[in-house]
Amino acid sequence: MDGDTPVTRTVHAQPFDFRFELASSALVIIDMQRDFIDPGGFGASLGNDVSLLEAIVPACQRTLQAWRAAGGLVLHTREAHRPDLSDCPPAKRLRGNPRLRIGDAGPMGRVLISGQPGVEIIAALAPLPGETVVDKPGKGMFHATPVQEWLQRAGIRSLLFMGVTTEVCVQTSMREANDRGYECLVLEDCTESYFPAFKAQALAMIRAQGGIVGWTAHSDALLAALGADVPDTI
Ligand code: C5J
Predict the structure, then answer these.
(1) How far is the CA of 163 from the centre of ligand 1 (A)?
(2) How far apart are CA 87 and CA 71, in angstroms?
(3) Segment 169-200, tens digit of pLDDT
């Protein structure tokens, strides 16, 4: 922890340096769940190349370890609905892939339903006892969840994002957070899309116009700001 005197940390980011204090920051890990990432899950069964998403796991793991070692707060989200689908509007369900919709029986249980194996966070990033896990029925993490109250209670002002997919749940959550006044940084090598061009464009949009939605940075820059060991790529 920062101790009695808050220490301001500086991450070399785009479009300019991102400053935060550990005690008023949370690392938000969006939807790193088995159905999106594991071979043999829902994402793979729809023909997506999940190896793209799997590839960010080591960087996420390293960043999470460094963040935990520094004493930072962690919030995990999962995209998940109630078993009776009462929180899944038809507009969302019916626009999904007709071959496998939310609530259907998929390769890892019912697709995007709380409590099903496919909704579990992958083992490499499993939450520790005491870390908060929020099931969110929307793409954004504030819609129909207690996230805003949780962040306010914890005195959080800055959010650092990892997870999938960049242009859907990560970007939506970040935009919602930005509108609520949080300072948001997305870690470029800790987020991914099934469509690399969408990831590149989402990151470009976030940091455009002087950081219209927030900042982006490589995780090595965060590790350096935390005083953690940085691989020799920076
Ligand atoms: C997430 C999705 N988590 N792409 N969901 O981004 O539908």
Answers:
(1) 10
(2) 34
(3) 999 999 999 999 999 999 999 999 999 999 99
CA dihedral 88, 93, 94, 97 (to 10 degrees): 180
Helices marked H in 111-183 — which ranges? 147-153, 171-179
pTM of the model: 0.96
Catalytic residue among 60, 88, 169, 190: 169
Q: Kindly name the residue from 38, 60, 88, 136 that is annotated as catalytic.
A: 136
pLDDT digits (tens, 9 = 90+) for 82-137: 999 999 999 999 988 888 999 999 999 999 999 999 999 999 999 999 999 999 99
CA distance 66 to 138: 29
- Is 223 close to ligand 1, i.e. is its CB under 6 Å away? no
